[in-house]
Amino acid sequence: MWALDAFKRAAKQDANCAACDQQIITLGLKLDDYKAALAAGEHIVTLVHNQKDIATAHFLFATALLRAGTAKHKDDLLSRSGQEFQAAVLADPTLHQAIFGDAMTMASLNQDAAAKTRFADYLKVADQNAIDFKRAQRYSERPELVRAQMAPAFTVKTIDNRVVSLDDLAGKVVLIDFWATWCGPCREALPHLKEIARKFAGRPLVVMSISLDRDDAKWRNFVAKNEMTWIQSRDDGFQGQVAPLFGVHAIPATFTIDADGVLQDQHVGDSAIQDKLKKLTARAQALQNQVQAQVHPAGGS
Question: Is residue 70 a part of any domain in this protein?
C-alpha cells in the first residue's frame, strides 16, 4: 500500500509522469484498488506520443478496465476495455497480448462467436510458449469458461527440473497446496496430503505442492526425507510468482481446480476434501471416457 501511495504522490507532483501512472495501474490492480488504476489509465493515454508507448498505455488502461469490469460486473467498463485493447493493437500490431485481451472482453460480454474468432486470431500470431497460449486454446473452444472463476494460468519449475503449466493439466483435477517447512500446521497436514496422493493414484488427479521456503537446500532435504513424491515446486515466499496469483497470505492454503480449470474451493484443514475430490475426479474420468469414445467409437476401426 505504501508503494502505491508513494507513486500517487509522485504523480501529483509531476502531472506528466507516465511511469508513475504505469506503477499506479500495476500496484492498484495487485491491491484491487480499481479506482486508482482506472484514473491512472485514463491519464496515461493522454501523455504518450510514440507508437510503442501509445500501445502500452492503451493496453494497461484496457487491462484495468477488464479487471474492474469483471470484478464489478459492469458491462460499460468491459465495452470500454475492448475499445482500449483494439487501440493498443492499432498502435502496435505485434502486441499480441492485446488481441488476447480483446477476446477476453468479448467473451466476458457473452459475445462467444466473436470471442472464438478473436482467440483464433491470437493463436495464429502468438508465441506458443506464451503463458496465455494454452489458455487461449481452451477458450477458443469454450469461450464460456472466461465467465467462470478460472484458476490463474501459471508455470512452475519442479524439484526435478521439469516445467509444468496449469494448462498442461487440462482434463484433470488439480489440488494445489501452498506450504513451507517452517509452518507447523503445514507439517501436521502432510500425512493427510500423503494419503490423498496415495488414495487417488491412478485417477485423474494431480497433487502439486508449492513451497514458500526461501532456503532451497532445506526445502529439498525436507521433501526427500518425507518422501513427498508428487509434484514439488518452490515459489520463494509470499511474493513469489504463483502465491500472489491465488491471493495467498497465510499457509497452509489448498486450492482445488476441476477438469475445466475452474477454481472450486479453498480448503484450510477441510476434512471433507476427499469427498469433494471423489466427485470431481469421477466427473473428470467421465469426460475422459467421452473423449476416448469420440476418438475410438465402438465398432470403429
Answer: yes
CA–CA distances in Å: residue 66 to residues 106, 146, 172: 10, 12, 28
Please state, in angstroms and rounded to a whole number, the distance separating the CA atoms of residues 221 and 236.
16
Single residue among 107, 129, 147 that ends a domain in this structure: 147
Q: Are 218 and 180 in contact (CB under 8 A)?
A: no
- Residue in this structure with the C-alpha cell 507439517, named with its chain if needed: 187
Q: Are residues 129 and 24 in the same domain?
A: yes
Asked whether residue 115 falls in the same domain as residue 53, the answer is yes
In percent, the amount of the chain with pLDDT more than 70 equals 96
Whole-structure pTM value: 0.83
For residue 101, give the CATH number of its domain.
Answer: 1.25.40.10
**For 266-280, what is the mean pLDDT?**
75
Is the distance from CB of 60 to CB of 29 less than 8 angstroms? no
DSSP code at position 146: G
Place of cell 504518450: 48
What SS3 state is found at 8? helix
Looking at the fold, whether 194 and 111 belong to one and the same domain comes out as no
Domain, as residue range, for 115: 2-147
Q: Please tell me the number of Cα atoms within 13 Å of 70 on its side-chain side.
A: 21
What was the pLDDT predicted at 296? 67
| Spatial CA neighbour of 43 closest among 87, 74, 12 | 12
Question: What string of DSSP letters covers 205-262?
Answer: EEEEEEE--S-HHHHHHHHHHTT--SEEEE--STTSSSGGGGT--SSSEEEEE-TTSB
